Amino acid sequence: MYRWKETSSMLNEAATLISGAAATFKIQYWGVDECLFENKPHKHSFFEVCYILGGEGEYTDAGKQFPLKAGTHFCSRPGIHHQIRTQDGLSIVFVAFEIDESLSDDSMREAFGKLAEHAEVCLDEGDDHPTALLWKSLLLREDKLSLPTAAISSAAYALLVSFLALFGKDHHEPFIPRKNTNALLQRAKLYIRDNLAEPLHLGHVADYLNVSERHLSRLFSEGIHETYTDFIRSERVRQAAHLLLTSELSMKEIAEVTGFSSVHYFSRTFTEAKKMPPGKFRQQELRRT
């Protein structure tokens, strides 16, 4: 099902320095082993996090023993002696890493510092945890249903950050949805820009966004300190100026595609905004270029 050796080579070549919005990680190595046998007791100066895909065995961490089976996740912390033992071998994936403190936010440095001190060492029945799904997303598959190379770094970053929720004792932060005011305003602005030739009545756009006219009007006045009508007018003038300089369209054609009801209204509105008629604007700007 998985291309074990190819995945190992790919990760160790393509995912050695992982950066994201809040942290940067230095990868010591990735392990992707279809049949790993036991090792000697040892310790590292970095984290080593493992996920068992198949087989059975035993893990010892600081003298405490934990059973290993498919679905088990375990975390070897920096400076802690640990060992894997198995009779028949384990199908296992693992990553050894450390956070680059100089390139990471305070919150992430603190979170991984706490993880080094107080991690839940071993967790069973973890096949449905987001961490397991992220692990599997990184594995090259024989059926070719694998992530594109461009997505590997982002998936690896998500995997590393997910360890905080998986092993952290106090890092289970609930998602608190924020008001979607910014998203609604952005959708409204995009719709207006894509449909300047249309009348763009307040009620029509409000219906498109499934909000009230009052709410839509307030989005503009509070979000960009501009009325809905003023925003549409400025966008029409902006697009008209662009067409004057980049096309050979007539004044009548530009007025139509930018939503002005007449050439006279277009000329008057454009002159108010740019302090010169559209024809003079075109001549003057083209002369400069």
TrEMBL record:
Protein's name in the database: HTH araC/xylS-type domain-containing protein
Keyword annotations: DNA-binding, Transcription, Transcription regulation
Keyword Lipoprotein assigned: no
Transmembrane domains' residue ranges: none
GO molecular function terms listed in the Swiss-Prot or TrEMBL record: DNA-binding transcription factor activity; sequence-specific DNA binding
Organism the protein comes from: Paenibacillus ferrarius
SMART domains xrefs: HTH_ARAC
DNA-binding is among the record's keywords: yes
PROSITE patterns found in the cross-reference section: HTH_ARAC_FAMILY_1, HTH_ARAC_FAMILY_2
HTH araC/xylS-type domain location: 186-284
